[in-house]
Design brief:
Layout (H helix, E strand, L loop, with lengths): L2 E7 L3 H8 L12 E4 L10 E8 L2 E13 L3 E7 L4 E10 L7 E10 L4 H28 L1
Antiparallel strand pairs: 1-7, 2-3, 3-4, 4-5, 5-6, 6-7
Helix pairs in contact: 1-2
Length: 143
């Protein structure tokens, strides 16, 4: 079962989607991590790398863009040696708040070869970490 973060915001869907998919901005909300986005930006098949560093140690979380519907949906699949899983970010118009957005960020994380054991832990960690990212990037976009 994936962790799912849902939010409603007065931000227009295009603005909310742009904020959520500004992956380099995520670094402000994820400790010890920098995100590399290709020069051409997010495009189908593009590789994004989130580097987590602690002193001389660095772990690459490699992700491929496997679905992209600009303004609506982004799906990343983790392909690295250390982390596997996926993230699916969807933004829709909020039917209860004209002009606003309804957001669903679903994510699964696990260690290769240990999916059954590590996915429940990954779901709990992802829920905390990515709720912080979602709230942070939306707040910045609203400011």
């Amino acid at each position: 079962m994936a962790c799912t973060i849902t939010r409603r915001t007065p931000l227009a869907p295009a603005v909310a989607f742009a904020a959520l998919t500004d992956l380099a901005e995520h670094t402000a909300h994820v400790p010890l991590t920098d995100v590399e986005v290709p020069e051409q930006g997010l495009a189908l098949g593009a590789e994004v790398i989130a580097w987590t560093r602690l002193g001389p140690l660095a772990i690459a979380d490699r992700m491929l863009v496997t679905a992209l519907e600009p303004g609506h949906r982004l799906r990343l699949v983790k392909t690295g040696r250390f982390l596997h899983g996926w993230a699916d970010i969807t933004v829709r118009p909020d039917p209860e708040r004209p002009g606003g957005s309804s957001i669903v960020w679903a994510e699964e994380l696990w260690l290769p070869g240990l999916k059954t054991l590590t996915r429940p832990i990954g779901d709990r960690l992802a829920a905390v970490l990515f709720a912080r990212v979602v709230d942070g990037v939306l707040a910045r976009a609203a400011a």
